[in-house]
Amino acid sequence: MAVQETERFSPGQRLSRGIAMAVAIVIIGCVVVFLVGGLVEGLGWWVLVVLAALVGGVGWLKWLQVRKARAWRRGVDVVHEVYVDALDRAECGDLTGAAERFEEAIAASSRLGGDAGQYVMVLLQGLASVRVAQGDLGRAVAVWQRAHALSRAEQGDDAAQTLATANGIAAVLLTQGEREAAGERYQDTLARCRRLLDAAHPETVTALNGVARSAPTPQVGPLHQQAAELYARILGPSHPDTLIAQRQAAPDDPAAACLAIGDLGGARALSAQALADCVQRHGEADPRTVAALNDLAMVLREQRDLTAAYRMYERAAELCGRLPGGPHPQQLAAGNGIAQVMLLQGDVVNAATELAAVLDGCLTRYGKQHPETAAARRNLERLEAPS
């Protein structure tokens, strides 16, 4: 979810309207002054002075409004510039620099307030992702807690964004090994999700997986099987996320076993190593490498490192463009993953656009009646349905 201007009350529109109104008021005021001066000569020169002062005061106030709009626009430009630089630094592996730039953007956005306040949540999520990538889990929890408090204050306890930040806190706690605290957080969030959201909503599925992974005794249980069945219904039987969920229910490799018992850090390390091995053995433009990219992206998403997860999915989609016989199944999986990340960030509009592209790809590759196409259609319809 990019930091961008809102269309409804953009600074450019405010500036144009402010200038137009100021000019109109000044012109009307001058006309009124001269009319009064011509028609009511007996009132004396002081009446003209008062009227001129009123007109000048109104014009000055409008000038201040225009100046404020310009300053706000410059502030938004600064926030966007710093945000992009933070993402670029994270992409290049300069996590310390990225964290500093995210902090700077958050401070600047908080000072702006107003419409710019909506950017703070996006920036906090980006900073949390960088802290997770750094392994600075204590600070990552603090960032998610700040985002959670902000969402509760602005949207309430039962808002989807509040549930998302609660899952973010739980994911980092679980990565830290604080199973009990993470489990309590996941259980509370799952109860709220089941009451407020669709059973197939990403936050509901995340909370369900979290409860399964944070059991006091690390083991595979019935909740893992429930999650696998839910993934099959949501994403389709052959979707990579579904296959990973099935592997968690019956672990057949070390990464899936780690993921199943809540060792998110271990799952991340093993998935990253599996990707590196695939690149070394098969090169980048190979279906096995792309599959490993999607697997790693899914682990990153579960760990709530959304910035890194988005980059992995994007890279997988790009590499699929080099594979013959497109749209490739892994490309559709990557598109689905990008949409999931967008939903977790609260970007419903762009998520719907991505899911529509996935549905088009499924129609092209599988036809109308295939289970994968049916799952893609349900996902899009669920998102577009009125809440």
UniProtKB/TrEMBL annotation:
SUPFAM superfamilies: TPR-like (SSF48452)
Organism superkingdom: Bacteria
Keyword annotations: Membrane, Transmembrane, Transmembrane helix
Membrane-spanning ranges: 18-37, 43-64
Classification via Pfam families: TPR_12
Name recorded for this polypeptide: Tetratricopeptide repeat protein
Organism field: Phytohabitans rumicis
